Amino acid sequence: MKKIIVTGGRGFIGSHFVDAALGAGHKILDIDKITYAASHKLPWDENENYRHLREDISEISHIPSCDVVVNFAAESHVDNSIKSSDVFVKSNFYGVHNLLELVRGKPEYERPLFFQISTDEVYGDALSGMFTENAVLSPSNPYSATKAAAEMLIRAYGRTYGLDFLITRTSNNYGERQYEEKLIPKCINNLREDKKIPVHGDGSYIRD
């Protein structure tokens, strides 16, 4: 059994990770301030290995001893970031900075692995072919810029302070508990209600 701190575990992707981790017998502390897109009730709320702390990752002053910090917490809707980017900078960049500082402040032998959940959006637009993990980051909107900036900060902390980290870049996730502003659930809901589906650009864009 490992002690895992999950941030954003009440959100769409984070909640599926928490479900899987609890199923594997791990102990979870879930730090989630519960934004508009979070789940207020989940089946494992009474699980003895699960505890929820309703806090903002950019404002917390302590994280308990653990083996891994998995950071799902983020503002993630591109359209919202274009309308107003302040909350994206606070959560996606300053939140990561605060978590890194809390990890760095621990004795080296107690520092957990820092696991950042990033996004393929950091690559920008693919005009041809496909990206590899070594491709240059070229974010094209405020959301992806804050996620790319967080990645750079994590790498710098790894180099400067010796923090152990992993970064994954997820792509076009969809499924149960996803908030309906996202593309797939929005299209499904509109089809159910016999409404037109929103089209971005000229309709020629392609997603995997």
Structure description:
The chain is of the alpha/beta class. It has one domain: NAD(P)-binding Rossmann-like Domain (Rossmann fold), CATH 3.40.50.720. Helices cover 32% and strands 15% of the residues. The chain has helices spanning 12-23, 78-83, 86-104, 142-161, 183-192, and strands spanning 3-7, 27-31, 50-53, 68-71, 113-119, 165-170. Strands 3-2-1-4-5-6 form a 6-stranded parallel β-sheet, sandwiched between helices. The N and C termini lie far apart (35 Å). The model has no long low-confidence stretch (mean pLDDT 93).
Cα-atom Rg, whole angstroms?
Answer: 18 Å
Read across the widest sheet, the strand sequence of neighbours is: 3-2-1-4-5-6
CATH top level label? Alpha Beta
Unreliable spans are: none
Structural class: alpha/beta
Q: What's the helix count?
A: 5
Shape: globular
Q: What is the percentage of strand-forming residues?
A: 5-15%
Average pLDDT works out at 93
Counting DSSP E segments of at least 2 residues, the number of strands comes to: 6
| Overall domain count | 1
Using the coordinates shown, work out and report the CATH topology. Rossmann fold
Order of helices and strands: EHEEEHHEHEH
Instruction: Please estimate the helix content.
Output: 25-40%
Quote the distance from N terminus to C terminus: 35 Å
What CATH architecture do you see?
3-Layer(aba) Sandwich
